[in-house]
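User: Here's a chain of 520 residues. Predict its fold as tokens.
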Amino acid sequence: MRAQYVVPELPAFSPELCDSIDLPMLIPRVEAHASMEASTTTLLEPQDLWSRMRGRFALDPSLERKRVAAELRWLTKNPAYIGRVIHRSRRYLHYILGEIEARDIPAEIALLPVVESAFDPFAYSHGRAAGLWQFIPGTANRYGLRRDWWVDERRDVIASTRAALDYLEALERRFKGDWLLALAAYNSGEGTVWKAMLRAKTTPADGGPSDFWSLGLPLETRTYVPRLLALAILVNDPAAYGLSLEPLADLPYFGIVDTGSQIDLKQAASLAAIELQELYWLNPGFNQFATHPDGPHRLLLPTASVAHFSSALANLPPEERIAWKRYVVKSRDTLSHIAMRHHVSTGTLRRVNALRGDFIRNGQALLIPTAMSSAGDYVMSESQRRERRIERLSRNHAGREIRYRARSGDSLWEIARRHGVGVRELARWNSMAPTDTLVVGRELAIYVPAEVAVTSLPGERPVVRKIGYRVRRGDSLSRIAHRFRVTVAEIVKWNSVNPGRYLQPGQLLTLFVNVTNMGD
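Assistant: Prediction complete.
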């Protein structure tokens, strides 16, 4: 008889767990708030998930390789990190391994989310990569992962796993069955790997060695593949390295439930008798308060909650699946504009309001889906995660915070230029990439030096810019201060200069200037 395992309770939820930004790809950041000691459980019994995984390992661990040995040393010196990642993986690993087995690919691939995201589905990196498998927008589009106001399927467990395995299989075919090259290409791009092969004149046509270890790849990639191999070595025989892994039951953690139509996530959590945070952890692709109005209409729920939820949902009146607000059509409104403004499709509005076409009339009342509770209750929605990131930055940043709402025609570059900050800094403060499209109405956090005194002429909006000024012959602190409408004390503070000494021609000063006060 198969040994039965009870899935232990997860630790109390901490919202900060889902706010991973600036995710390092070489050595994942160890979160300060998660102080979990390494697991001290006994050695694994034969029928757990680890045993099943070991039986399908297929990659050459190449222990003699110095790079693998170096990664193995780092992992064995950080057992608490291993413990946290394994604990986080328990929601997803059984499903991922099952999908890998169905495709008959090496089971080591199931550990790839450790390297990519530390099994955090909310992880987001500077390279605009998101989710367990860290898809960037371009690759997400290529593999059909939808991204809109309601959902980011790069974070969706089902959709992103399907896309990641599709991509990896395509790479394995391109590199003639070499999984190490496929993994390298997953990290750095297939073009990068192919060019490295050409530079080394090691293409198969040249007859030279074309293996991963012979190529001059980026440093990150040269570490990425050995990290995965080192993880597989540890999982294969943890006791040999003085470790023991938390047992994972060879049982599904979640079930997939067809909801039939859109449903408020708080209502869904209540029907399933689980915490809303747990629902978000299993369904991390949802950005807002509800499932996507256009589907797919499914939720992942803990296996023990599936039957209870299904029964409760069947008895729930359709009008109670989601809250509605009444909108009165105004002059010049169109159905498409109303839909765009409220982040729903015209098809949704037509279905909900029994419209046969797109024709609407002035004064007509429409029903539009809205949240059942206050925004703060949806603690892991995209807006709430962003607010927590901004709040942390505000606490830790020495500068003064400005909130700016994007207007038509704005860009990150223009906003950064007007406020005297760097584009990359502005993007990082707001969990964006410098090339991201800026949506009108989005609120941005901007941090300018705290010592900058912002004043403006009546009716004008202050615009502070950081400028470099090169001292000219005859300049003095007071003359420069007068010219740029700042104080001598401010110039001294910004540049750590001695006010008792003469300025030298050619000396470079940093000034924070309100350009709206500059006149000509």
